[in-house]
Amino acid sequence: MFKNSFIPKIVILLMAWSTANALSLLRITCDDSSQGAKVYINGVHKGKCPRDIGLAAGDIRLRAVIKVDTDHERVFEKNIHLYDRSPERVEVQLSSSQLNTKAKKAKASATLAKAQAGDIKEMKNISKYYKEGMGLVQSSSKAEYWSNKASEMISQNKREKEQEIAKEVLSKAKAGDISAMDKISRFYAEGKGVKQDALESQKWKDKASSERALKKHTAEVKKAKEVLSSAEAGNISSMETISSFYQTGKGVEQSSTKSQEWLKRSELARAEKKQRAKEAKRRAEAQEELYNLNPFENTKAFIQSGKRDIDDNPFLSLGLTTGLPFMLLGDLTSSPTYTMKKKSLENELNARASSFENSNSMVAKAYNKSLKTKNIQSEILLSSRK
Questions:
Q1: For an engineered disulfide with 295, which of 108, 233, 338, 383 has Cβ 3.0 to 4.6 Å away?
Q2: What is the model's pLDDT at position 55?
Q3: Closest by alpha carbon to 266, among 274, 255, 277?
C-alpha cells in the first residue's frame, strides 16, 4: 500500500537524520518515455529514474539521460536549489534525440578543421559552437573571432568577384562595347572592383558618349543613303524625306539648296503622278467610248424604241417597218462622221499609250502640245461666250 509512496520514504530519511547531518529530499519522477533514465547530480551517477535522493541543502545540477544510439541521446537538465530539510520534486521530461557529448566533440572538431581551412559556412558554425559550448569549452572571445573571420572572408570573396567582373567589363569596353564603357565608368566612380578614380570614370563616360553619337551618325548616314537612292529612283515619299534630311543635316551634309531642290522635285513628281492618273482615267473612258461606237447607232435606238411601242400597241408595227429604211439611210449618210470619230478616238488612245510608255517620245510631246492647244482654244471660246 505504501510502495513508492512519499511518506514512508520521508520517515526513513528522518530516521537517518538522527544519526547524520541534516539532508533535503529530492524526489525525481518521470513519464513512461523517461523510465530508466540515468540520473546524475553534479556529474555523479545516482541511479535511474524514478528515484528519491537525500542531498545536502544548496545548489545542484540535475541531469537525466537515455542513450538512443552510439552518437545520440535524450537528455533532461535542470539547475535546482535545495533548502535545508525541505523536500523538492522534479518531473523529468527528456528532450528529442540529440548528439551526445562524444559526438558533439567530434562534430565540433571536424567543424573547426573545416573553418581553419577557409570554409565560411563552418566558420559561422564554429562561432555558434563556441558561443553555446557545444562540443568544446565555451568561449565568447573565440566565438567573436570566428564570426569576424567569416565576415572578413565574405568581404574578401566579394571584392575578388567584383575585381573579376571589372576586369572583364574593362576588356569589353576597350574592345568598343558602349554598354561596358558605361559600366566601367560607374565602377571607377564607386571604386567597385577597381581603385576609385574620378578621372578614369569621366574618361570612360565621355568615350561612351562619343561612341554612341558616332554609332547614331553612322546609322543616320546609312539610312540617308538608302532614302536618297529610293528618291533618285522616283519614290515621292523618299524625295520628301531626303529633303528634310538635307534641311536638318541628318545623315548628310546640311544644305538648304539641296533640300529645296528635292522638295520641288517631289512636288513636280506628285503633280505628274496626278496628271498620269487623270490621263489613265481619260484613256479608259476613250476605250469604252470606242468600244461602244456603232455606225448604226440611230437605227439601233429606233428599233429598240419601236419594239417597246409594239409591245404596248401591236398596230404600230407598220410604222416601224416604214421608218426603218429612212433610219438606215440616215446612219449611212452620217458614216463619214462615225469614221472620223473612230479615227479620232484611236489616235487619242495611241498618243496616250505612247505618253504612258515614254513621256519624252515625239508622239507624246505632239499629243501633249495639241492637247494644250485645244485647252487654250476651249478657254478662248468660253471667254467669248460670256
A1: 338
A2: 93
A3: 274
Q: What residues are paired with 319 via a beta bridge?
A: none
Q: How many residues does the chain have?
A: 386
Alpha carbons 228 and 307: distance in angstroms, whole number = 66
C-alpha–C-alpha distance, residues 92 and 69, integer Å = 20
pLDDT in tens, 116-159: 999 999 999 999 999 999 999 999 999 999 999 999 999 999 99
Distance in angstroms (rounded) separating the CA atoms of residues 108 and 102:
10
Q: What is the pLDDT of residues 319-330, one digit of tens each?
A: 556 666 766 666
For 366, other C-beta atoms within 10 Å of its C-beta total 12
160, 184, 193, 194, 197 from 189: Cα distances, Å = 18, 8, 11, 9, 6
Query: What is the CB neighbour count within 10 angstroms for residue 242?
Result: 30
Query: In CATH, what number does 6-99 get?
Result: 2.60.40
The domain locations on the chain are 6-99, 103-174, 288-385
- What is the Cα–Cα distance from 74 to 134, expressed in whole angstroms? 16
Nearest to 108 by CA among 143, 145, 135, 148: 135
Q: Locate 385 and state its grid cell.
A: 461666250
Encode pLDDT of 311-360 as tens digits: 666 655 555 566 667 666 665 565 566 677 667 767 766 765 655 555 55
Q: Long-range pairs for 324-333 at CB < 8 Å and ≥24 separation? A: 324/299, 327/298, 327/299, 327/302, 328/296, 328/299, 330/298, 330/299, 331/295, 331/296, 331/297, 331/298, 331/299
Supply 177's cell numbers.
Answer: 562595347
